[in-house]
Amino acid sequence: MAEEKQDKKPEKKQEVKQDKQKEEKASKRPQEDRMESIVRVYGFDIPGNKNILVGLTYIKGISWALSNAICKKLNLQMSKKIQDMSKDELKKIEDFLEVINVYDFMKNRRFAPDTGKTSHIYASDLDIAKEFDIKRLKTMKSFVGIRHAAGQPVRGQRTKSHFRKKKTAIVGKKAAPKVSKAPTKEKY
Q1: In this structure, what CATH number is given to the domain that contains residue 74?
Q2: Residue 58 belongs to a domain
Q3: Domain limits for position 87
Q4: Residue 4, CB half-sphere, CA atoms under 13 Å: how many?
């Protein structure tokens, strides 16, 4: 009888483990009835389940601080989901981004070299402006431009142990001694 009780206990444990595994697999499956929406704001797709504060940072050129400022200026509730916003609210955000009215220190293009004005740019315009700035620095032969051209770090980082992906020789390491395989002359 004692042996029968011992045999039943492991069987019950195995059944419980199998049931738990089945439940975990079922919970990991995506739910088909769940709908995910994507909202397009200023040319960027933002998942609808994100809050306004988080969702605005999906737009290239908008930081967390700027997203917070937009929500405060337009009196938007930061915890509200993007998919729950009305078309008027989305239009209000896009109009605000066209003529952004925040402090100058929040803008990403302060005292632009070509115009001398402070502005805020987004998306591909931001990439193009960055490329042109780097090209301008290279043609001026400034220290930063030379470092960009050489593929080295620009902001004064140490290079002894980092930024080695483009180097061929490693500083501080001794090369292995070369073993010559020249034929030796035999002595008679």
Answers
A1: 1.10.8.50
A2: yes
A3: 38-102
A4: 1
**91 found inside a domain:** yes
Per-residue pLDDT of 97-107, as tens digits, reads 998 889 989 98
Tokens coding 53: 């504060």
Residue 163 in domain:
no
Per-residue pLDDT at 27: 59
Q: Are 140 and 149 in contact (CB under 8 A)?
A: no
- Asked if pLDDT for residue 182 goes beyond 70, the answer is no
- Report which of 68, 63, 65, 62 is spatially closest to residue 122, judged by C-alpha positions: 62
- Reported as a pLDDT band with limits 50, 70 and 90, residue 146 is very high
Whether residue 89 is contained in a domain is answered as yes
C-beta of residue 49 within 8 angstroms of C-beta of residue 83: yes
CA end-to-end span of the chain: 92
Paired residues of 39 in beta bridges: 46
Using the structure block, give the residue that is written with the tokens 């061929």: 168
Instruction: Tell me the whole-structure pTM to 2 decimals.
Output: 0.61
